[in-house]
Each structure stands twice: as C-alpha cells, then as structure tokens.
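Re: the 181-residue chain
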Amino acid sequence: IGFPGEEDSDLNQSLDLAMELLEKNKNAIINQLSPLTPLPGTELLRDAIAKYGFKEPERLEEWIRITRGRQERPWLDAKALRKIRFLYYTSLFLCSAERYAQKFHIPALVFSLYSWTIWQRWKRRWYWLDWEIPFMRLLFRWFINPVDYTFPKDYGDAHTAKESDIVPVRALTSLDSSVTH
C-alpha cells in the first residue's frame, strides 16, 4: 500500500482481495499491511528522488527515519497518509485477537471486539474513523520499536496528535547536564 500514483480504487481492490481471502480461508492471516518503502539501490528509490523529491539519507544511520512505522512519503497527501496509517496500525489487530490477548493479559473478548470494529471500518471504507491511531503510534514508539526517538521539528502532520518529546533511555542514564530530573 502507499505506492506512488496509487488510486483509491487500487487500494480498495487490494483490501477487497485481502478480506475475500480471509473470508474464504479461516486459516489465512493478515500480519500487517506495510506502506511501500523505497530502499537503497532500487528503481523505486531512483523514481522517488527524480519524480517526487524524496530526499535520500546521506548516512546509513539516517535510514531509520524511512521505516514502515513512519509512513510519510512525498507522494502521499494528508488524506492518503491518514488512510495508510489507519491500515498499517489496524491491520496488526485484524487477525490476532488471541495472540495479543495472551501477550498483554487482556481478555480475548476485548481484542475480538476490536478486530470486529476494524473489519467493519475496512468493509465500509471508514478510514477517517481512526480515533485510536495517535495512541497506537505512541505505544509503538515506546514499546514495539523503541529506537533512538529524537524527532526533527518538522516530523509529523497536522491531522494526528502532536508528536511526543520522547527522550532516549540512554540520555536519562548519562551525566549530560542538558537532561534534568
């Protein structure tokens, strides 16, 4: 999902196929829908730079900002970005109620109900009903992918919650005078 030039109809066909496979095969699982990520040395990266003004990181360490969890791409407008985020985060819970219930020690019924609401929103194309996404993004940053989260001032977008100022754990343990307790 999230390809340059991808139309709503293309995305909807992909979701229809995924939901049809899930309905026809009870053993099928969607683990996660991930947005397209231009990788070094690929034609996609060359096109993203030439056609969309994508800025290729100069150093290896800078590629951490180009991940599935940070879906900003120059070819996505605010509406498309919101939809991609919704699908990315909700796809994690569409087929995994029991797994998350066990992992977080929460009754499976809670995750089953949440999975059902995701299914209904996907089916009806209610991508705008994304109340949980800012919260999920914050949880991901803290627990799922806690890499060095120091965000540039221009990171984020206007239609989701304000990005939090997360301080890396190693900064809290250093004797750096800029960190106050």
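The chain has seven helices and no strands.
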